[in-house]
Amino acid sequence: DEAANNGNRIEQNSTHANLKKTDALNTANRKNYYIGEKGPGGGYIFFDRGSNSKGWRYLEAAPTDIKMKVRWYRNRLSRYITLQTAIGTGKENTRKIIISYGSGSYAAKLCANYSNNGKRDWFLPSKDELVKIHKNLRPFSSYGFKLNGYWSSSEDNTEGIPGIVWYQMFWEPQEFCGVEDGSMKLNVRPIRAF
To answer: Strand 56-61 relative to strand 44-53: parallel, antiparallel, unpaired?
Structure first.
């Protein structure tokens, strides 16, 4: 009986020690990020929703643009894809765009293929996500943004024409978000949620 009790105590102590190690590791991995700070993907934090829900709390913009200006779609118009504008919708928008347009070198596909700092979960930001980048990452040149347009993953369905898409201009200091035919070539900056 005494040997069994000693064995149980040793096992409990070992389990307790392992739980403490796991808690310490989780605490070390639980970092609070601030707007403008480098994120785990090597980009810049531009949004903090305050708590983790639906699997993410922060949004970070890649450290640089995709190297070339590109079209929003791949050489053809499509039907409306029902793309949202709100913060937190860019990832799903990107997925829907790629399902609709397939392979090629267009904004959403290039963002989905982007990799930096070991992270491969980047996507094309929604309209409101781009507005937050414009509001929170200043001065723009410090974060590598150009003063011309950046594609969002959000369509504007008010005109009744497929392929009319929201974009964001990075002019100081005013905010300008407009719509344009997706055949125009604009800048692209991937983002990720974590």
So the answer is: antiparallel
